[in-house]
Amino acid sequence: MERKYIEELMAYNIEGMIILSPTIPSEELAAYGVPVVGIEREDKYISSVNTDNYMGGVQAASLLKKSGCDILIHMNAKLPDEVPASGRTRGFEDVCRENALTYEIIYADMGNTFEENKSGIVKLVRDLEKRYPDQKKGIFMPNDTHANVLLNVLLRKYGELPDTWQIIGFDDSSISREAVIPTSTVGQQISVIANEAMEILSAQMEERKKRRPQPMEPVHKVIPPILIRRETTA
Fold first, then answer.
1. How many alpha carbons fall within 13 Å on the CB side of residue 50?
2. Residues in CB range of 95: below 8 A, 6 or more apart
3. What's the rounded Cα separation, in Å, for the pair 131 and 88?
């Protein structure tokens, strides 16, 4: 379906594209012959603007460490190294190893629907409480939506966020600010990312007009994340 949309756009002689979807490989996107800028996706053959996901993982693990957690846990899908979000896991794990912290990486596909997400997180809570019943568990969720689901599961079970749980998400989406208990998160600078993507695309479109048909080297920019401490971490 996405290929069909792009082909329709190309029929209008568009001069460039900004792509967020990870579905189409960057090599295929580059073959369309117009400047393409990707955001938070595999970007070997196209320009890109990404959050420093590795630093985000470092920030999350460091906050959970400072919160006095006995066990640090990161849950995420198993992502290829070329996907920027995979850096979150590497950053988290490096902090844990360098500080000799007890930690666990849980690779899991939480599905595509709320029901699937909730079911998977209910099982996660049950499993972690069985294995670490009295330990303070600090968990870094893959995004704010999953962090909010985890928070709601715990609130429904206990009526409050237990002292044995600390939660941090990723994105700084509105759901993290508007949750029953505002959630700590690693914030992406969305406006900065969007502006950088537009600047790269505009510059490459102008350069293409001058140099056609010579290909241009991809430009990659990395934007630092901002750690936002709220009430789900000490």
1. 24
2. 57, 58, 61, 62, 65, 101
3. 24
